[in-house]
Amino acid sequence: MIGPHHDGSELYVPVRPALGATVPVLVRVPHDHPVERIHLRSTYDGDTRIVPARPVRRDAEAVWWQADLLVHNPRTRYRFRIDESWLHAGGLVEHDPTDATDFQLTVYGRPPAWLRDAVIYQIFPDRFARSGRVNEANPGWAVPAAWDEPVVHHGPDTGRQLYGGDLHGVTERLDHLAKLGVDVLYLTPFFPAGSNHRYDAATFEHVDPLLGGDAALIELTTRAHRRGMRVIGDLTTNHTGASHEWFPERGAYYYLREDGGYASWFGVPSLPKLNWGSPELRAELARVAGRWLREPYNLDGWRVDVANMTGRLGAEEHNQAAARTIRAALPDGKLLIAEHFHDHTADVPGDGWHAVMNYAGFAKPVWSWLTPGSGFVFPGEAGPLRPRAGRLVARTMREFAAAVPWSVSEANVNLISSHDVPRARTTLGSDALVAVAAGLLMTYPGTPMLFMGDEFGLEGLDGEHARTPMPWDREPPPLWEVYRDLIALRRSSHALRHGGLRWGPVGDDVLVFLRESPRERLLVLAARAPYEPLDLPLGPNLYGGADQADGFGPTFQVWRLAQPAHSG
C-alpha cells in the first residue's frame, strides 16, 4: 500500500536471532516506489556497519530486497538506506534520524510462546463472584456491601467496601469465560491486606482466607489448566502494606530520616517503599516471585504493580536490576508484565519485563481518537482528553511501537478498560464506539485484555468506580456478542496473532492497517464517524458485514486479502 516497509515479524525477519549469527532481513518496496539501491546500516560494538541489500523476489505488488544482518551484540539496532532516504521503525524519512527508533533485534529470551495466542481477562476478586463457600468473619477495616449496592469511589470507605467475592467464585464461572473466548485470567492481588484492593499486602506467603485461602487458588489454577486456560497473579514489588511482616525491617525499606521516617508510594504512609538496593530484599522477592509459579499453586506469571516505580527513589536506580532479578526467578514458560502508564519504552529493552500494560501506546491514543469530548481525564494528564485526529493517533501508536523491540510490541498488553481507569463504555459514551475500540483491541499487534464486565457494558467514572460487581442476574447485552465474535475472529486468524503491521490510509475519522503473516493478509478499517469513501483492494469480509469502504461510520471492518502472486 504506502511506501517501503519492514517490521520485526516473520515476513521480514524469518529467522530468530542468536548472538553471532547472521540473519536475513527483508524490505518490501512497492512497484510505484522504484529504488536504485538499498543498504543496511546496523550497530556493531557502538559503531556502524554498512552492507548492501539485493532484490531477491518480486510479486504482483512489490519487490522484496534482502540484506544480511550480523547479530554481533545482544541488542542490535538497524535501519535501511533507500536511495537518499532512511527507513527506520518510525517510517520513511529524508532526514538523518537518531538511533532511538531504529529497528531492534535482541537475543534475549522472548515472552512465552502462548502469549501471542492469548486473550487476557482481568478479575478484581472481591467484585467477580461469591461462592458461598467462604465463612471467614469480615476484618475490622471492612464495610460489608450487598452485591447490588453502588460502589463507593470517594472518601474513606473507598478501600474498605467489601462485597465478598472469592476465588471459588472465579472457578465456578469458568464456563462464562470459556464461552466468551478468553484463556488467561489475570487476578489482582490475592494476598492478605488491609483493603479491598489488596495492594497493601500484609504477607506474600499465603492467599487471603477471605478469598478462600491457598486451597482456593490451587483449585482455580488446576481447573483452569484442565480447560487450557492460564492464570497470572499481581505482585507489588514497589511497596507493601505497613502491616506487612517485613515492616519495619530497615534493610527491606527506604528510610529517609534519622527519626525513623520512611519513604512510601506517593507519600501514603500505609504503603512503605521496598529497598531494591538491599541484596537480601532482592533475594526474598525473587523467592516469592518463583514460589507461586511452581507446585502446588502453578500460576503462569505475574503482572507487576507500578513496575515503573520499582527500585527508583531519587538517586537510587534499581529498576532494570529488579526486572532482571524477577525474570531470572521465573520458570520456563512463565510471564512477566509491567504496569506502566506513560512512556515505557526505556524500561523494556527485552531482558527484564517481557512487556507492559500498554496504556501510553494503545489505550490513551484509542481513547483520544474515539472520545466524544466527555471530559474524562486519563491518568497522568493535566486535563480532560480532547478528540484527536486519526493521523495524530496513528503517529503516537507508531512511535511507541518503534521505540521497543518487535518482541516487546507483539507482547504488550493492550487494553481499553482496567480497574485503574474509567470504563470504556463511560468514556466513549456509546456501544458503537466501544465496538470500534474493541475491534482495534483485538486486531492491533499485542495481547488484548478485557476488564471483567466489559462484555456487560459496565460503566465507571474513575478507576475505583469501575470496580463494579459483575451483574450475573442480567442478560448479556449486544456488547457480549461484539466481544465474543471479535475474540473468535482473533483466534481464527494467524495474521492477527502472529503477523506484522503495515499502516494504510489514515484520516481524521478513519484508520486503516494491514496485518500480514506468511499465511494470511487482513485489512482492518476502523471509523469513528462517516468518512470519505476509500478505494481499497478488498476481499471477503470477515467482520462487520461490509463489501466496500463506503464511508459509513462508526464502523469496524475486517477483510481478507489475497496473497500477491509472484511475477518473477
Which key features would you list for this structure?
Immunoglobulin-like, alpha/beta, 8-stranded parallel β-sheet, globular, 3 domains, 568 residues, TIM Barrel
CATH superfamily name of the largest domain? Answer: Glycosidases
The tally of helices reads 12
CATH class of the largest domain: Alpha Beta
| Count of the domains | 3
CATH architecture term of the largest domain: Alpha-Beta Barrel
> How many DSSP E strands?
26
Oligomer: single chain
User: If strands are numbered along the chain, what order do they take across the biggest sheet?
Assistant: 19-18-15-14-13-10-21-20
Q: What is the approximate shape?
A: globular
The CATH topology of the largest domain? TIM Barrel
Q: How would you describe this structure to a colleague?
A:
The protein is built from 12 helices and 26 strands. It is of the alpha/beta class and 568 residues long. It has 3 domains: 22-106, Immunoglobulins (Immunoglobulin-like, Sandwich); 115-497, Glycosidases (TIM Barrel, Alpha-Beta Barrel), CATH 3.20.20.80; 499-561, Immunoglobulin-like, CATH 2.60.40.1180. The radius of gyration is 24 Å and the shape is globular. The model has no long low-confidence stretch (mean pLDDT 96).
